[in-house]
Amino acid sequence: MNITIENAGPCKKLLKFEIPKEAIESELEKKTLEACSSVQLPGFRKGHVPRKLVEKRFETQIKEDVKQSLISESYEKALEENKIEPVGEPKFDPEFGNLNLEIGKPLTFDVTLEVLPVFEVGQYKGLQLKKKAIDVSEEEIDKLLKELALQKAQFTVVSGGGIEEKDLIICDCKVEVNGITVFEDNDIEVSVVDGSKIAHTEIPELVKYLKGNTTGATCTINVVLSDTFNIKEYRGKEASIKLVVNEIKRLSPPEIDEDLAKTLNFKSLEDLKLNARKRLEINKNIWAENDLRTQILDTLLAQTQFDLPKDFINKHAEERVYKHQLDLVKRGVPFEEVQKQTESMKSVSEESIVKELKASLIIEYIAKKEKIFVTENEVEQRIVEIAYSYNTDKKVVRKQLETQGNLSYLRNEMREDKTLAFLLKEAKIEQEAAK
What we know:
Strands 6, 7, 8, 11 and 12 form a 5-stranded antiparallel beta sheet that branches. Strands 1-2-4-3 form a 4-stranded antiparallel beta sheet, with helices on both faces. It starts with a strand and ends with a strand. It has 3 domains: 2-115, 2-Layer Sandwich (Alpha-Beta Plaits), CATH 3.30.70.1050; 154-252, Chitinase A, domain 3; 262-306 and 349-431, Trigger factor, domain 2, CATH 1.10.3120.10. By secondary structure, it is of the alpha+beta class. It contains 12 helices and 13 strands.
C-alpha cells in the first residue's frame, strides 16, 4: 500500500492512497472463501455451495466487502503510523459510494481531513499580572443593606398615586370573546411585571397597560387566549381582558436599623454592616482572582498563534448548545424559554467560540508539559461537593454524570482549574494600590 500525505491548508491533510492489485486479489480470495463457508442456498448444505455459484450470486456483495475492508484498514493504518488525529468526518474523493473496485487494477482514492493544530507555547511561567485592589465603598455597603432589607419587604396598600412596575394589584377580571363574557373572577392578584399571566394567558407588555392607573380604574387588554385557557373551545381566540383595579399594593422594605439586624440574626446594626463589608470583600476578591485568570489566558492567546479546523469549531458550537439545552430541561425551564435561549446561544459569535477553544488547547498543552493531572480521588471529592450543594447522594450525581457523558467534561474542567492555579502560582503579580 502506498500513502502520500500532503498539507492541504491550515489544519488540513490530503492523504493519497494506492492499494496494489495483489492486495485486492488477496482480500478478494479471503472474502470469497468466507462466503463459501457461510452462505446457504436451496439444494445445498451450508458450506457446500459450489464456488462458481457463490461468485456469480454474491459477486457485488463480495466486492463491496473487499472495498470496505481494504479502505478501512488502509485509512486506520495511515492515521496510526503517521500519528494523525482527525477532527470531524473524512472527505473521500471520489466519494466512498462511487469508488469502483476493478479486479486486476490498483485502487486509488484521496482522503481530505481536518486535524488539530500543531503549535508551541512560549514563556508561560512568570507572567506579568496586575491584581485589582479590593476596595469596598460605603455606597456599596448601603446598596447591599438595601437589598437585604428588600428581602424582608412586605406588600402594603398604596393609598394614593398610580400603579408602578413590580406592584401587586387586586382586581376583578372579565374575559370577553366577540363581546360575550366567557370568564369572570373577582379579587385576583396580578403582579405588575411584563410576562405575568392573567386567565392563564401571558401578557408580554403588561406594565404598559397598567402603569399609572389608580384604584377604581378599568383597563382593557387585547390578547390571544393561550392553549391553557380554562375553557377549551376559546383557546387561541382573540379576546379582551377587562380589569377593574380594587387595590394597589407595593413592596415596603423595613428601615435599616437594629430591628432589621436582629431579624437577620445579627447582634447589632454594626455587626450587620461589618458582615456586609466582609461579603463584598470576598466577592471582590473572587472577581479579582477570576480577572487574573482572564489575564493569563489573554496573554497566552496573544503570544500563541494558530488556526483551528472549521469542523472542530462547528462541533464545539453544537455541543455547547446541546449541553445548555440539557441543563435548562433538567432545571424544568419551560419549552418556549428553552427555544429562546437556544437561539440566543446559536448567535454567539464564532470569534468567542474560537477564543474559548484556543484557550482550552493551550491549557491542555501546558498541563501535558507540566504533567498536571486529576486523580480519581480528586474527582470523587468534587462529586461529593456537587452532591452536597444539591442535597443529594454522591452515587446519584456520579450516575447522572456518567449517563449524560459529562464525567470527562468534569475531569477536563478540573484539570484546567489546576493548570490555571499552577500558572497563577508561577506568575509575577503586582497588587494594585487601594484608592
